[in-house]
Specification:
Strand order of the largest sheet: 3-2-1-9-10
Number of helices: 25
Largest sheet: 5 strands, parallel
Helix content: 40-55%
CATH class of the largest domain: Alpha Beta
CATH architecture of the largest domain: 3-Layer(aba) Sandwich
Shape: elongated
CATH topology of the largest domain: Rossmann fold
Strand content: 5-15%
Number of domains: 3
Structural class: alpha/beta
Radius of gyration: 29 Å
């Protein structure tokens, strides 16, 4: 397999080979290759944060497939950052406003569950990541600064302060550069992170500044009394931990040369990077933790499996992705299509298949004998209140299936009922058929009434296809669109022959009769 992995064009393998080249094909002095992901806990974790860890894990697995070098993955939370604004989607807004600019681990938890807001958001992130079984180590910036793990790099930043400042000042506007310093002191009186001019930085690790009340202080940069501005912090963290790989969103890409240079000034070796495109909400706007727009991880997992979300994250990471509820059904069905394909593929194609990267090579068998999109339509016409309302149809179509033998199908049936109830039912819009469509549907009815081909989905699809051709639909897609809009209240739907096979011929006859009689249109009036 290793030879095939070294030649695979799958993007995780391409990135893994770059990392292997970076370390010269041998174990680094520290004894492992270090992968890192960053998290800013200024708001509840969103799905983009999960995507960063999922994709990094995929690259880590690919790296482990091409060599025997040990690896570690650190999820680093910048929870010492000052809370610059109050997220819109959390309670106790007034209390949070009173704590603006305090480190996130010093802000009380508005949910009353943890010792701080940063602690709450860190716990939410870890819970989400644990749901997916990621192997990672969690690092808190607050603990990192206060425990002394960052001291050596902070002292080196004092020694090389002018050199680092030259890098930063070259990237800043004139008015910003006049007061800028790489160091942000924590106010001894208010506990807030201060964006104030630094009067003096000494080579032996002390800074002098004026507090909010004008009092002058001189404090050591060690022990959690001072933090670095976020751009210098990026490079300093790489140097302190000797990071070999980190990925981040496109919005960081212009800062990459700054991060790299600061890392090198502080004695580190710049890591390999991977820049991914951003996630967008339903309106095409960037997903934001403070706004709470876009999908959350919990919302996705209400309607689909963890694997379907991992599949979505695998696809085209350098292409911007719109993340809204309507992407879920497609992701579910495509994931299972890839599972089925995997069973028939040779080694090289398996390594290019997304499911290898989702499951780390331990790929399960798909038991989804009914597509998720079909289950949604079945939930619609059957008026199912729970998954048991679907199983009678499923077992007539696939007698060998049961909730016990097909747990992924059983889970998908429950998801389909929820998804239909919350997203499909409120938007259904039925209409009456045109004269051409009515004639074709009456023809379809006549053929179904004399049908003797059993529940053969392909044969039924061929028959439905023939009806459309006989009635002059051009393009033929308009015929299927008419069936969906008149019978299901949607402009898109499943292969109609497969739907008839699942729902039943007699039940489908009744459905078409109701659509032609306008019963569905009357119910929405």
């Amino acid at each position: 397999m290793r030879d095939a992995a070294m030649n695979s064009k799958a993007w995780p393998f391409e990135e893994a080979r770059k990392i292997l080249k970076r370390v010269g094909g041998k174990t680094p002095e520290k004894g492992y290759v270090l992968f890192e992901t960053g998290y800013g806990p200024s708001g509840l974790p969103h799905i983009g944060t999960f995507g960063e860890v999922a994709r990094t894990t995929m690259i880590r697995r690919a790296f482990e497939a091409i060599c025997d070098i040990p690896t570690r993955l650190i999820c680093f939370s910048d929870d010492m950052d000052g809370m610059r604004k109050v997220p819109d989607n959390v309670p106790q807004q007034e209390m949070l406003h009173e704590n603006l600019q305090r480190p996130l681990t010093s802000v009380p938890d508005p949910f009353g569950e943890y010792d701080s807001f940063g602690g709450h958001n860190n716990a939410m992130l870890r819970r989400f990541l644990d749901t997916f079984g990621f192997e990672y180590e969690f690092y808190s910036a607050t603990e990192f600064y206060k425990s002394g793990q960052f001291d050596q790099v902070l002292l080196r930043a004092c020694e090389r302060y002018d050199e680092i400042m030259a890098v930063m000042l070259a990237s800043l506007r004139e008015e910003r550069s006049a007061t800028y310093s790489i160091f942000l002191p924590i106010s001894p009186s208010t506990g807030r992170v201060l964006y104030v001019p630094i009067r003096q930085v000494t080579k032996d690790g002390f800074i002098t500044f004026d507090d909010e009340d004008g009092t002058e202080h001189t404090v050591p940069v060690t022990g959690g009394r001072v933090k670095l501005q976020w751009k210098p912090d990026f490079g300093a963290r790489w140097a302190a931990l000797d990071v070999d790989f980190e990925m981040y969103g496109k919005d960081h890409s212009t800062n990459t040369p700054i991060y790299d240079k600061i890392c090198e000034i502080l004695g580190g070796k710049k890591p390999e990077h991977f820049t991914y495109e951003l996630f967008l909400d339903a309106n095409g706007e960037k997903i934001s933790k403070s706004k709470g727009n876009g999908l959350t991880i919990d919302e996705w997992l209400t309607y689909a499996s963890t694997e379907s979300l991992s599949y979505f994250m695998y696809l085209k990471p350098k292409t911007a992705k719109r993340m809204h509820f309507d992407v879920i059904p497609k992701a579910v069905d495509e994931y299972h299509q890839q599972l089925r394909a995997y069973a028939t593929q040779d080694e090289a194609k398996r390594l290019d298949n997304p499911v290898w990267h989702i499951h780390g090579g331990n790929v399960p068998e798909s038991k989804m004998v009914v597509p998720f999109a079909m289950l949604l339509n079945l939930a619609s016409v059957a008026s199912a209140k729970d998954k048991s309302g679907l199983w009678g149809f499923i077992q007539r179509y696939a007698p060998e299936a049961s909730p016990e033998t097909h747990p992924d199908l059983d889970q998908a049936a429950e998801f389909a009922v929820r998804y239909f109830r919350d997203f499909v039912a409120p938007k259904r819009q039925f209409r009456m058929p045109t004269d051409q469509e009515r004639a074709a549907m009456e023809d379809l009815l006549a053929r179904l009434r004399t049908w003797d081909g059993g529940l053969d989905a392909d044969a039924l699809q061929t028959m439905v296809f023939a009806v459309g051709k006989d009635h002059g639909f051009e393009p033929l897609r308009d015929w299927f669109k008419a069936l969906y809009e008149v019978l299901l209240g949607a402009s898109e739907g499943p292969r109609f022959g497969g739907f008839v096979a699942l729902y039943g011929v007699n039940e489908s006859i009744r459905l078409i009769e109701q659509g032609l009689a306008g019963e569905f249109v009357k119910t929405q009036a």
